[in-house]
């Protein structure tokens, strides 16, 4: 975790591309990114399963076991823990060699009870103290008050979280307020504002979320449509380049 944690305190925010399979992660590494995360939507959709439903535990663990072949730290989106015992899940991910996890407090159209979410984070962290735990606060997804975001963020840090992730937060004043409240704890946001501006506001990690996956499947369909209609197809790496992604 030390290497991964240090990346959150470098000169600029850690830009974390989110992969859904080995090839996408390897392509991100080849492009020069310093760490790779996973996207729960991409992993779920790639297996014909719904996101945020707690049903992709096996698929996520299988992917994690292949991603650790890459020469960069890997952090995994474990949704709300897949209904697994947090200590057992932590032990399995530690054995695999994962550097970090993302744990969310969203439960569909509501948030988990604060005490229960803190207990989940604490149990995971106690079982895997070397794993960087990024606690996701879904208040902005659910349009809840700003003070609830701060309350939950600080509670999760007290429970052992190493970072806080607030997807949907875009207001610059509110970003600065949360950065100040968190102090040395890194704030992670989605790539919804310009990267360098987020750095100026004090954000320490920027995740691309499901964007690369959604772009990829959109462009895949566009390539076939372009061929059929005689239009120019999107740029693509060669077969040989794609083949070398599996060599590590």
From TrEMBL:
InterPro entries: ICL/PEPM (IPR039556), Pyrv/PenolPyrv_kinase-like_dom (IPR015813), Pyrv_kinase-like_dom_sf (IPR040442). SUPFAM superfamilies: Phosphoenolpyruvate/pyruvate domain. CDD domains: ICL_PEPM. One of its GO terms (molecular function) is catalytic activity. Gene3D superfamilies: Phosphoenolpyruvate-binding domains. It comes from the Bacteria. This is Isocitrate lyase/phosphoenolpyruvate mutase family protein. It comes from Mycolicibacterium mucogenicum (Mycobacterium mucogenicum). The lineage of its organism: Bacteria, Bacillati, Actinomycetota, Actinomycetes, Mycobacteriales.
